[in-house]
Specification:
Shape: globular
CATH superfamily: Aldolase class I
Oligomer: single chain
Strand order of the largest sheet: 7-6-5-4-3-2-1-8
Number of domains: 1
Order of helices and strands: EHEHEHEHEHHEHEHEHHHHH
CATH topology: TIM Barrel
Length: 297
């Protein structure tokens, strides 16, 4: 199985909705073009930021098809394939057509709170079933359980088509340990925009970004400068976004970045319940920062 290089800035695509609640496929096409034109290295389709739990199976297929057709192989595509029922994830991986997709991203099983051995066996099973390389996703703030560094390293060493981890634990010691002891070819990717710069200085290869939905050109430049060792220039860009990093998530994800994209004229400010748009106070704070950055809104 060919290994995919996930160095740089990947963007976890949002799903735009119309005011009536249906998927806005025209807006999605515009957003994909925006990413392609502004330096995004790869796209992640149907991740958390896409509000995937609220999408029907048919909508998920239509979204995936649109992105594949729009990208036309110009950059890699990573598809979210997750679940807390291992057998169901395995069945999906064995039965679906993944043509046009380069890797899958699969989150640590949520709600069940498996042991570390259970997490290992879950990934062992889905990696055996997957026709594509697998990217692990550790986000304990959402799943309710942390995948320990020892478990990530065990997977990296023993499961050959587990090629990377998106780390969003916020535990810099844990992530540093994974980077230090991992196999050379295994990649560590930041799952949190706000710590991407320091993690690259540790040895991470980039980020799967939320803020990149709205600022692909600027944030991908920051990532590239940091990867090239130009930390001074990268830090300047990082600091430009510091206030936005917090505001993006204060009312939940993707409410923050959808508000910004709405200000920029790309989408309607619509989410599906149980998620709702940002508070007016958050919206206005973000609008003020965009004005300071001379971004039209």
């Amino acid at each position: 199985m060919e290994r995919i290089n996930l160095k740089g800035m990947g963007v976890a695509l949002i799903t735009p909705f119309k005011s009536g609640g249906s998927v806005d496929f025209d807006a999605l096409a515009r957003l994909v073009d925006f990413q392609l034109q502004n330096g995004t290295d790869y796209l992640v389709v149907l991740g958390t930021t896409a509000e995937t739990p609220t999408l029907t199976a048919e909508e998920q297929k239509d979204i995936t098809r649109l992105v594949i057709e729009r990208v036309k192989g110009r950059i890699p595509l990573v598809l979210g394939v997750s679940g807390n029922n291992t057998a169901a994830v395995v069945k999906r991986l064995e039965s679906e057509d993944f043509s046009g997709i380069d890797a899958i991203l699969s989150v640590v099983p949520y709600y069940n709170k498996p042991s570390q051995e259970g997490i290992f066996r879950h990934y062992e099973a889905i990696a055996a079933a997957s026709p594509l390389p697998v990217v692990l996703y550790n986000v304990p703030g959402r799943t309710g359980v942390n995948m320990a560094a020892e478990t990530t390293l065990r997977i990296a060493r023993e499961i050959k088509n587990a090629i990377a981890v998106k780390e969003a634990s916020g535990n810099m010691t844990q992530i540093g340990s994974i980077i230090k002891y991992k196999p050379e070819e295994f990649q560590v990717i930041s799952g949190d925009d706000g710590v991407t710069f320091p993690l690259i200085t540790f040895g991470a290869v980039g980020v799967i970004s939320v803020i990149g939905n709205a600022f692909p050109k600027e944030f991908s430049r920051m990532v590239r400068l940091a990867l090239a060792g130009d930390y001074k220039s990268a830090l300047m860009i990082h600091q430009t976004f510091i206030e936005l990093f917090d505001l993006l998530f204060v009312d939940g994800n993707p409410a923050g970045v959808k508000s910004i994209l709405n200000m920029m004229g790309y989408i309607e400010n619509e989410l599906r319940l149980p998620l709702i748009p940002t508070r007016i106070t958050t919206y206005e704070k973000m609008r003020s920062i965009l004005h300071e950055l001379n971004i039209k809104c």
